[in-house]
Specification:
Number of helices: 8
Mean pLDDT: 95
Bound molecules: guanosine-5'-triphosphate, magnesium ion
CATH topology: Spore Coat Polysaccharide Biosynthesis Protein SpsA, Chain A
Strand content: 15-25%
Largest sheet: 7 strands, mixed
Shape: globular
Distance between the termini: 29 Å
Order of helices and strands: EHEHEHEHEEHEHHEEH
CATH superfamily: Spore Coat Polysaccharide Biosynthesis Protein SpsA, Chain A
Number of strands: 9
CATH architecture: Alpha-Beta Complex
Radius of gyration: 17 Å
Oligomer: single chain
Length: 237
Amino acid sequence: MKTLIISPTYNEAKNIETLVNQILGPNPEYHLLVVDDSSPDGTAEIVKKLQKQYPTLHLEERPGKAGLGTAYLFGFQWALDHDYEAVVQMDADLSHDPKDVPRLIGELKNHDLVIGSRYVDGVSVVNWPIRRLILSYGANMYSRIVTGMPINDGTGGFKAWRSSTLEKIQLKKVRSQGYSFQIEMNFRAWRRDARIKEEPIIFFDRTVGESKMSSSIMYEAIWMVWRLRIWKIFGWI
Ligand SMILES: Nc1nc2c(ncn2[C@@H]2O[C@H](COP(=O)(O)OP(=O)(O)OP(=O)(O)O)[C@@H](O)[C@H]2O)c(=O)[nH]1
Ligand SMILES: [Mg+2]
């Protein structure tokens, strides 16, 4: 399958080179798209330098920080416009292990959406403060109960999609930005009877660069799951 990996970046100058080397080094057949929101730390310049070495490395620059959700939607549409058959989404901060990418893609043989999951057999998270872990685990439990969607790790951002599934989701209708962006995308796929698989991964907390986590991202998720539930009742989603 012709595969595109999408990684949104905002101030990932310290991580991007390692990420590109680890993805495209061992897998030159993959294509990698970096969606950079004009990071002030010069992330895009590093990508441009690496493009001389990797012909399948693509860069799209947006004028300013517009959020993770819109960066992914932009990347998904880009993938559909360029006829990729499989799409992988992953963070650029090395929280997601590039070595797991082929395994996620492999599972697409029999599934439409493969979710790299931290919560398949217990918890597989390295270096997270216990507060953050409880928050994430709790948020997932809450979201599972409210939406009724049988997914253990609905907020994770390391996933592989069949392009045909992305086509069925009306990307223009997707509303959320932060954690709830992941939940909303799963929900829309689930509502379209996508075959969803949770594949165990180990999640590593970022060691360099700054976190973009904020309380508004959390509040958005708290309300969004109720909205999804209501939309489903009225058949709007
Ligand atoms: N293009 C773009 N990328 C973003 C934006 N916000 C975050 N990102 C990227 O999205 C990925 C996930 O963001 P993170 O800051 O790691 O968020 P997180 O994983 O929830 O939190 P930490 O790992 O604790 O920092 C990273 O690759 C970021 O650089 C944005 O507004 N635009
Ligand atoms: Mg991160």
